[in-house]
Design brief:
Blueprint: H1 2-10, H2 21-26, H3 36-39, H4 51-60, H5 63-85, H6 117-153, H7 155-170, H8 173-184, H9 188-198, H10 200-214, H11 218-225, H12 230-238, H13 243-266, H14 278-284, H15 294-320
Helix pairs in contact: 4-15, 5-6, 5-15, 6-7, 6-9, 6-10, 6-13, 6-15, 8-9, 10-13, 11-12, 13-14, 13-15, 14-15
């Protein structure tokens, strides 16, 4: 009996304190204000950015890329407004002002026919930049469609299309360009046709690789399930998700096209005289380069800084559009 009483004494329940609603309301410990640090725990410390917004922020932090953009903008302004500033034309001859050095009247001097070199350099910027951007745009369209169809369809179609690309790439592109220029003549139209015959190959391979890597992902399969056609899936979903590498590839095509145009004009099968091109200006200055170095200096500087600027932009875009480098 004593042991049972001891157990009952040990296990006797303890009466819990009874709190009323008034006690809870008046209890200040339940309503202590939060510290400022605890209030900021759920605040987003960085704003949400889209893919292109993040790419633009990274591009702005690249000084070389931004310097390249500024140089290209200045070159475009020179090409548009340069010939309008001076009262001369690119083919106007003045035999009383032959081979003048840079002066107040002729900012870049004159050539052996008395033509104003500043106007001719500005007019050459029109031709070179037009050829570069037009060739890049046309080849981007051809390369995206060709590579996209090859990568998306796959199978025997992909094999045949890629063998055609291999055959074309096996022939030196410069040889094809020279043959086209010989048959079609020396003008801007023939240069664009010659560049468009071979320049799309690199873009097509790049797009094909991108399409092969993403065509079986969930968003593409979901588009197919809801009834979109293959062409719609390719253009609405797959190509936009591959635009980063495509833009980088096309950006590097522009300086290559400008270089080819200048090279063809320099060797005499590109833009024909008296039309001013950076290549023709460099060719005209060869005979008197030792006596009048300014004739070679200005077109060579224009070609060089344009090539450097476009390559800096391409490098900046390659880093900015890489999702693995997101910061």
């Amino acid at each position: 009996m004593k042991s049972n009483r001891k157990k009952e004494a040990i296990f006797q329940p303890v009466a819990a304190p009874i709190y009323t609603l008034e006690d809870e309301i008046t209890d200040d410990s339940l309503f202590e204000p939060l510290d400022d640090a605890e209030k900021q725990t759920d605040v987003i410390s960085r704003p949400s950015l889209t893919y292109w917004q993040n790419a633009w922020q990274k591009l702005r932090r690249d000084p070389l890329a931004m310097a390249g953009i500024v140089v290209i903008i200045l070159m475009i302004l020179l090409a548009i407004f340069g010939p309008l500033i001076q009262p001369y034309t690119y083919d106007g001859q003045d035999y009383s002002a032959i081979n003048q050095t840079p002066n107040a009247q002729h900012w870049f001097g004159t050539d052996k026919f008395g033509r104003d070199l500043f106007v001719r350099v500005a007019y050459g910027a029109r031709i070179s930049l037009t050829v570069g951007f037009a060739a890049a745009a046309i080849n981007m369209v051809i390369g995206v469609l060709y590579g996209g169809i090859s990568g998306y369809v796959g199978g025997s179609v992909d094999m045949v299309m890629m063998r055609i690309v291999d055959i074309i790439s096996a022939i030196p592109s410069l040889l094809i360009i020279i043959l086209v220029m010989v048959f079609l003549g020396a003008n801007m139209k023939s240069i664009l046709i010659a560049l468009c015959l071979t320049y799309w190959i690199g873009t097509a391979r790049q797009v094909r690789g991108q399409i092969l890597s993403i065509k079986n992902q969930d968003f593409a399969l979901a588009a197919k399930v809801i009834g979109e056609s293959d062409f719609q899936i390719l253009l609405r979903h797959l190509v936009p998700n591959s635009m980063g590498p495509i833009i980088v590839t096309v950006t590097f095509l522009i300086p290559q096209a400008i270089f080819y145009e200048a090279f063809l004009s320099f060797i005499g099968i590109g833009i024909s005289v008296p039309v001013a091109s950076w290549g023709t200006l460099a060719n005209d200055s060869l005979a008197n380069m030792n006596l009048y170095p300014h004739l070679m200096l200005f077109p060579a500087v224009a070609i060089s800084i344009t090539m450097f600027a476009l390559n800096f932009i391409g490098d900046g875009l390659r880093d900015a559009l890489d999702p693995r480098l997101k910061k």
